Amino acid sequence: MSVFTPVTPERLVHWLTRYSVGVLTELQPIAEGIENTNYFVATTQGRFVLTLFEKLGAGELSFYLGLMAHLARHGIPCPAPIADLSDNLLGNLNGKPAALVTRLPGRSLEQPSREQCAQLGALLARMHLAGRSYGAFLENPRGAKWCRATASQVRPFINPDCQRLLDEELRFQALYRFPDLPRGPVHADLFRDNTLFEAGGISGVIDFYFAGVDCWLFDVAVCANDWCLVDPARNRRLDTERTLALLGAYAEARAFTALERGAWPLMLRAAALRFWLSRLHDFHLPRAGELVRVHDPEHFRDVLALRAAADFAAPWPG
Q1: Do 147 and 210 belong to one domain?
Q2: Which of 48, 81, 102 is the last residue of a domain?
Q3: What is the pLDDT of residues 117-152, one digit of tens each?
């Protein structure tokens, strides 16, 4: 959610004439994130988020916006895309594909509690179950193929110890494929800053622009590697109590299979690898932007090293 493509109030006023959302009253850039240009937009009829997509194509965006609309219709608290007067969810603004979605209330958490991790697990399972009836397909855009390609791009920038960790993890992940694990649309980026809380409960999940079809367990692992750390700043081991709360609440809505139990430690490693690689890429090969926030890649290097350690025991309910 950085600003790569500036939008003036005057330009947006003109663009909004194709929507039935009222008159513009506020336009505020959003500095967090690293992929797209985002603004908070307020009008006389509501509050919205405007996104200009810097790299994504129409095919991918059709999947993302359709998935959000589908989940919103099924009671998932996610942004609902706003159709223009021609019933299109996707438009064009300043030469970029653009979409307007509802802005959800609430704030993200720095240190979620056991109860809040349980709420996330329950909602994630509901999302997966609701996504089963979504008919469109898009392979996880940051799956195994992307990991291999990105690793070759960032490898020259990292030190020998990191190169060895990267090479060994790529070799390890190549040994395993999971065609029999339950799968469907996954969010694939449901970190703490993409989940909003209000009045003690989850009020929204946002930023579906890394979504795709993959193993549901991968989605769970992405969440655990961010939500369930003992201390994100100093101790990146998994907190057993919060991890079990997330997994237990998820399993109450959708029971895990025996194959998922066996694959859990591997999925935690796969999720850590994916985000280490994306942060390495954004750090060493950045794009120019007016407001850009780049995350520290060392965080997920440490997460991966801990998950790949010989003495790592992945918490699992029961």
Answers
A1: yes
A2: 102
A3: 999 999 999 999 999 999 999 999 999 999 999 999
β-strands 37-43, 91-93: how paired? unpaired
Residues 6+ apart with CB under 8 A from 266: 173, 176
Strand partners, 24: 43
Residues of the chain with pLDDT > 70: what percent? Answer: 97
Indicate the helix (H) or strand (E) that contains 66.
helix 58-73
Give the Å distances, CA to CA, from 299 to 146, 241, 259, 277.
20, 22, 29, 11
Does 169 share its domain with 287? yes
- Note the pLDDT tens digit of each residue in 189-210: 999 999 999 999 999 999 999 9
The answer to whether the beta carbons of residues 97 and 61 sit under 8 Å apart is yes
Q: Are residues 184 and 74 in the same domain?
A: no
| pTM of structure | 0.95
Q: Which two tokens stand for residue 209?
A: 């622009």
Q: Domain check: are 294 and 148 in the same one?
A: yes
Distance between CA atoms of residues 248 and 15, nearest Å: 46
Least confident interval from 61-75, 90-104, 282-296: 282-296
Domains in the chain: how many in total?
2
DSSP letter string over 260-312? Answer: HHHHHHHHHHHHHHHHHHHHHHHHHSPPP-SB-----HHHHHHHHHHHHSTT-
Q: Is the pLDDT of residue 73 over 80?
A: yes
Asked if residue 123 lies in contact with residue 205, where contact means CB atoms within 8 angstroms, the answer is yes
Q: Taking the CA of residue 191 as centre, how many other CA atoms within 13 Å lie in the half-sphere pointing to its CB?
A: 15
